[in-house]
């Protein structure tokens, strides 16, 4: 009888272990965490000729750009602008003074710009102005950044890439969550000419990954979606997995909180 009692206790204690063993959900082994890849905040939103943003799409958290800019009023999504302020300070410390020339553009503005360009160019799309709905500027995360000399010129061209400010951005912008959205070696993929001045905020984890692996946003999007599809095909449930992660207790809050609100860390104290 006593033996049976201990057997039952042992089984009860082992149950959670068996429970985990039966759970054959695949292991998440992509170098970026699932909550970031889920793109709930839209920082990975892709806008191009094949992925048109809706006419009515406008980000909800636009803020007025206070970072150094040419005359005019500009807006960006808050996370992008916060990161931009940090990046401008760091660039300045390295002797590079940067200016915002263009930031968020509504669908309507893009529509007007595109048609003006077509009219000027005898109806031919030369790849310099994005099709309405296809502009990275409509996401509120894309912007054009120049040095002082180029703010004094009428147009832009890839000669800017030779200037130290452009080189500083190419080398460092990922540290602040930005990528050069339209790279020289990705023109076939992005469908847009090389624009060393056009930055796109994607968050630091993704920017670092895209920089290190030389991926355009198009390529990264394809890879991200393929990984999620494969995760589901291997028996995972990506949405449920993300949901479970968001409901887990904060891993940084390991201590219990006492009545005074102080974390109890006495376990590690003498
Ligand atoms: Zn641009």
Question: Any overview of this molecule?
Answer:
By secondary structure, this protein is α+β, with helices and mostly antiparallel strands. It has one domain: Muramoyl-pentapeptide Carboxypeptidase, domain 2, CATH 3.30.1380.10. Helices cover 40% and strands 11% of the residues. It has ten helices and eight strands. It has a four-stranded antiparallel beta sheet. The chain is globular and about 90 Å long. The chain starts with a helix and ends in a 6-residue tail after the last strand. 29% of the residues are buried. The C terminus is likely disordered. The structure holds zinc ion.
Keywords:
four-stranded antiparallel β-sheet; Muramoyl-pentapeptide Carboxypeptidase, domain 2; 40% helix; binds zinc ion; two-stranded antiparallel ribbon
Number of helices: 10
Average of pLDDT: 88
Shape: globular
User: Which residues form runs of ≥5 with pLDDT under 50?
Assistant: 11-22, 255-270
Question: What ligands are attached or bound here?
Answer: zinc ion
Strand residues, percent? 5-15%
Draw up the topology in text:
Blueprint: H1 2-22, H2 34-37, E1 62-64, E2 75-77, H3 78-93, E3 99-102, H4 107-120, E4 142-146, H5 148-151, H6 164-172, E5 178-182, H7 187-190, E6 195-201, H8 204-212, H9 217-233, H10 238-247, E7 256-257, E8 263-264
Antiparallel strand pairs: 1-2, 3-4, 4-6, 5-6, 7-8
The structure holds zinc ion.
Short structural summary:
40% of the residues lie in helices and 11% in strands.
């Amino acid at each position: 009888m006593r033996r049976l009692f201990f057997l039952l206790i042992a089984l009860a204690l082992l149950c959670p272990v068996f429970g985990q063993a039966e759970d054959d959900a695949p292991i998440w082994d992509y170098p970026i965490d699932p909550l970031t890849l889920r793109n709930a905040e839209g920082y990975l939103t892709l806008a191009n000729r094949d992925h048109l943003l809706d006419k009515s799409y406008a980000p909800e958290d636009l803020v007025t750009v206070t970072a150094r800019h040419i005359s005019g009023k500009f807006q960006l999504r808050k996370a992008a602008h916060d990161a931009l302020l940090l990046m401008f300070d760091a660039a300045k410390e390295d002797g590079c003074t940067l200016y915002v020339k263009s930031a968020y553009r509504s669908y309507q503005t893009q529509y007007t710009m595109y048609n003006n360009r077509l009219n000027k160019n005898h109806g031919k799309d030369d790849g310099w102005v994005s099709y309405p709905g296809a502009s990275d500027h409509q996401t509120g995360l894309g912007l054009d950044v120049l040095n002082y000399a180029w703010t004094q010129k009428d147009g832009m061209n890839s000669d800017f890439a030779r200037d130290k400010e452009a080189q500083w951005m190419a080398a460092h912008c990922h540290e602040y969550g930005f990528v050069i959205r339209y790279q020289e070696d990705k023109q076939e993929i992005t469908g847009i000419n090389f624009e060393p001045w056009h930055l796109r905020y994607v968050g630091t984890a993704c920017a670092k990954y895209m920089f290190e692996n030389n991926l355009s946003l198009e390529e990264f999007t394809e890879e991200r979606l393929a990984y999620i599809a494969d995760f589901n095909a291997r028996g995972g449930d990506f949405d449920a997995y993300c949901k479970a992660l968001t409901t887990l207790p904060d891993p940084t809050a390991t201590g219990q909180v006492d009545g005074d609100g102080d974390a109890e860390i006495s376990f590690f104290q003498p």
